[in-house]
Amino acid sequence: MNRIATTACAAVLAVGLTTGLAACGSSDDGGDKQVLRVLAASSLTDVFGSLEKTFEAQHPDVDVQVSYGSSTDLAGQAVDGAPGDVLATAAAASMQIAVKGKVAVDGRDEFATNVLVIATKAGNPEHIRSLADLDGKTWVRCASTAPCGKVADAVLKAQHVTAQPKSEEVDVRSTLDKLTSGEADAALVYATDAKSAGSDVTAVSIPGAKKAQAEYFISPLTQSKEGSLARRWIQLVTGPQGREVLTKAGFGTK
Amino acid sequence: MSRTLGRAPLALLVPAVVAVAVVVLPLAGLVAQLRPSALGRALGSEMVRQALELSLLTSVASTLICALLGLPLAWVLARLEFPGRRLVRALVAVPMFLPPVVGGIALREAFGRSGVFGAPLLDHTGFAFPYTTWGVVLAHVFVCLPFVAIGMEGGLRAAGQEYDAAAATLGASRWHTFRRITVPLAVPGIAAGLLLGWARSLGEFGATITFNGNYPGTTQTMPTLIYVARESDENAVIALSLIMLVISIGILVALRDRWLVAP
Fold first, then answer.
1. Is the pLDDT of residue B261 over 90?
2. Which residues contact B171 (CB under 8 A, 6 or more apart)?
C-alpha cells in the first residue's frame, strides 16, 4: 500500500512539474508573439494596465509586459542594460539619469502631470482644509529621496509649513497605505493615488500645488529590439486614447 | 583522522566551495565598491549618527526585554511538562518563519492606532505604538523573542536536569535552583541566544518600517536609512552597508561558533 502511494505521488509530482515548467517556458518566450517591455513609474500602474489591454487588442501578435517600480530604480536598471523597450518616469530627474547613461532616445517627451493633494479619511472627519490644519494631526508623506517626496518638499516649502509628519514613506503607495489602513489622519499623495482609493479617501486640494507638480516623461530605449512597437506604444500613450485614460485617472495632460 | 579515511570526494568539495562563493562573493563585491571618502562622509552625517544610535538603542533595549521574558519562557519550555508544550513552542517560533513584513502587518492590526488592542489603548491613554521608538522596540521584541527563547531553551536542555535534581534533594527551592544552578550552567547557551536575538534586532527592517514608519531620530534605524537612501546616494549606501556588515561580523566573532555547534 505504501509503495503504491509513493509511486502515485511521484507520478503526480512529475506530471505537475513538467506541466508547470512547460507553461512557464511558453509564457516566457510567448511562442510566436512579439514582446514589448515597458518600464514604468508605479503611479502609472492603473493607466498603463488599461492601455496594455487596448494595445494588445490592437496588436494581437504582441504581448506587452510592464514592470512598475520607482522611477529612479528603473532608470538605473535601464542604464545598466536591463532589457526594455520604453521607459516612463514620474520625474525629469529620473529620465535625465537615462539620458546621461545614453539609453534614452528622447528625454523631453512630457506626457502627463500629477499634483500633490492632502488625502484624508472618507468624509474628512478631522476637517483638514489646508496644509496649516496638519499641525497636531498624525500625517505622513513620501521621503525626500522619492520623486513624490521632492514634490512634497517643494509644496511644503512654498506654503511655509512647519508641522512635522509622523513618518516619511519610501514611495507614494506606502504613504497612501498608512492612511487607508487607519494609521494616519492624512497623507500627502498624488491626486491620482487618492482617486484610485475611491470612496475610502477624500482628497483636499492644495492651493499652488500646480507650481510644483510631478512631470511624467516617456522615451524609447536604445537597447530596444522592437523600435517600431515602442514608438507605437508611445503614440498610444500620448495620443487621444492615452490622454483620455490619463485624465480619467486624475493626471493632467497637455 | 582524514588521512586514514581517504581523500575528500570532489562531489562534496565542489558544491561546498560553490556554497562559500555564493555567500562570500556578494560581500566581497560590497567591499570592492566602497569609496573610503564616502565612509568618512557617512560617519560624519547627522542622519547616519542618529540612525546608528537608534539602531543600537533599540536593539539593546529589545534584547534586554527578550532576556527578561525569554529566559523564563525558555525555562518553562525546558523544565516543565504540561499538555500543549509543543504547541506553545511552535507558536513562539512563528515570528522566526514569518516574513518580516507580514509580522509588521500583524503588529499593526493588533497594536496600530486603529488596531484591535491599539485603538482602545489610544483612546484611554493617548499613546499608540506606531511612529514611536517604543513601537520599534515592540517590533524588535516580536521578531527576536523566538530566537532568544528557543536558543536559550537549547542551552538549558543541554545543561541537563541532573544538577537540578541534586539541588532539589538537598532542599533547594526551584527558584533558588534556577538562580544558582540552572542559569550558571547554561550561560553559553543563554549568551548565544541573546547574541542571536541582538543580531536579528539590528538587521530588522520589514516589520519596523511597516509598523512604525520612518522618521529620523525616532523610528529611522540603520536598515531603514539604507533602504530610503538607496535611491539618492549610491556611495553613501555602500558605506552604510559596510558599517552594518562590520557590526554583523563583530557579532559572529563574539559568538565564536557557539551557535553553530551545540554547547
1. no
2. none
Distance from the Cα of A27 to chain B's closest Cα (Å) equals 29
Torsion of CA B151, B152, B157, B162, to 10 degrees: 160
Nine cell digits for residue B142: 516580536
**CB < 8 Å from A in window 102-121 of B:** 108, 112-114
Cβ(A251)–Cβ(A112) below 8 Å: yes
Q: What is the pLDDT of residues A169-217, one digit of tens each?
A: 988 888 999 999 999 999 999 999 999 899 999 999 998 888 889 999 9
Is A130 within 8 Å of A205 (Cβ atoms)?
no
Q: Smallest Cβ distance to A166: which of B131, B209, B229?
A: B131
Give the predicted TM-score (pTM) of the model: 0.81
Contact A146 B214 (CB under 8 A): no
pLDDT averaged over chain A? 89
Inter-chain CB pairs, A–B, below 8 Å: 51
Regarding an ipTM greater than 0.85, the answer is no
Contacting residues for A135 by C-beta, under 8 A, at least 6 apart: A162, A163
